[in-house]
């Protein structure tokens, strides 16, 4: 079952902050985050495992609340290069990848000068 | 490392024709995934391999789709016969572990007319 991402789209000015949420109705083992620029392939940003550890990548960080089955991606002091579509991927267990891993629909982020 | 290499980048074909997409994974990655991306359905897993063996092909939409991985450095996705609804971007991705970050190839944009 596909996770829900919110918002669907967001427009920011350079230097502003944004939060993208990913939630699932099923218990999760991990959450992955990817960014895809227009016309390019998705690029892996980070993985968050069960345990709530917050991870970071440049000025992009994320948290994972396993009790609420949701993850949030935080973009701080956004740069023009942050524009793209952000996908979360949710994992429900360590076996049967095909059945247990699914990408969300994506959140389109546009950073304006 | 050259990353995951896919060919061709673009393919335009007529309905009913056979289409073959090619992928060279990153050396040392034991897992290879074929994904399809459309506006309507997002990123969908078609099939994945572990050590050249197909593990889960439940995402392959129809018998018209087939995939092979004859060795660790090469995989193909074949559609025969192709139909307009197969139009999409097809990504190949590889990873050293099933549930870790995946490196995607640049994708093949397939248009069936």
Characterization of the model:
- The complex is a heterodimer of chains A (113) and B (113).
- Chain A contains one helix and eleven strands; from the N terminus they run E-E-E-E-E-E-E-E-E-H-E-E.
- Chain A is globular and about 45 Å long.
- Chain A is mainly beta and 113 residues long.
- Chain B is mainly β and 113 residues long.
- In chain B, 0% of the residues lie in helices and 55% in strands.
- In chain B, strands 2, 4, 5, 6, 9, 10 and 11 form a seven-stranded mixed β-sheet that branches. In chain B, strands 1-3-8-7 form a four-stranded antiparallel β-sheet, with no helix packed on it.
- In chain B, strand 4 and strand 5 form a beta hairpin.
- The relative contact order of chain B is 0.34.
- The chains are: A mainly beta (113), B mainly beta (113).
- At the A-B interface, strand 5, helix 1 and strand 10 of A face strand 5 and strand 10 of B.
What is the topology?
The complex is a heterodimer of chains A (113) and B (113).
Chain A (H helix, E strand, L loop, with lengths): L3 E3 L2 E5 L4 E6 L6 E7 L5 E8 L5 E3 L2 E6 L4 E6 L8 E8 L5 H4 E3 L3 E6 L1
Parallel strand pairs in A: 2-11
Antiparallel strand pairs in A: 1-3, 3-8, 4-5, 4-9, 6-7, 7-8, 9-10, 9-11
Chain B lengths: L4 E3 L2 E4 L5 E6 L6 E8 L3 E9 L2 E4 L8 E7 L2 E6 L8 E8 L7 E2 L3 E5 L1
What is the share of helical residues of chain B?
under 10%
SSE arrangement of chain B, N to C: EEEEEEEEEEE
DSSP helical segment count of chain A: 1
N- and C-termini, Cα separation of chain B: 36 Å
């Amino acid at each position: 079952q596909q996770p829900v991402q919110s918002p669907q789209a967001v427009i920011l000015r350079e230097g502003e902050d944004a939060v993208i949420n990913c939630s699932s109705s099923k218990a999760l083992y991990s959450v992955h985050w990817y960014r895809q620029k227009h016309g390019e392939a998705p690029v892996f940003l980070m993985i968050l495992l069960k345990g709530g550890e917050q991870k970071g990548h440049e000025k992009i960080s994320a948290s994972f609340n396993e009790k609420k089955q949701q993850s949030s991606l935080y973009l701080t002091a956004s740069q023009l290069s942050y524009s793209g579509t952000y996908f979360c991927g949710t994992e429900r267990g360590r076996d049967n990848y095909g059945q247990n891993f699914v990408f969300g629909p994506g959140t389109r982020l546009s950073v304006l000068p | 490392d050259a990353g995951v290499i896919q060919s061709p980048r673009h393919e335009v074909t007529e309905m009913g024709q056979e289409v073959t997409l090619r992928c060279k994974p990153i050396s040392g990655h034991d897992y290879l995934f074929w994904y399809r991306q459309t506006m309507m359905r997002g990123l969908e897993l078609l099939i994945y391999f572990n050590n050249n063996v197909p593990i889960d092909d439940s995402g392959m939409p129809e018998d018209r789709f087939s995939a092979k991985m004859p060795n660790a450095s090469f995989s193909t996705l074949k559609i025969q016969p192709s139909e307009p609804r197969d139009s999409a971007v097809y990504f190949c991705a590889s990873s050293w572990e099933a549930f870790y970050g995946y490196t995607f190839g640049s994708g093949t944009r397939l248009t069936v007319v």
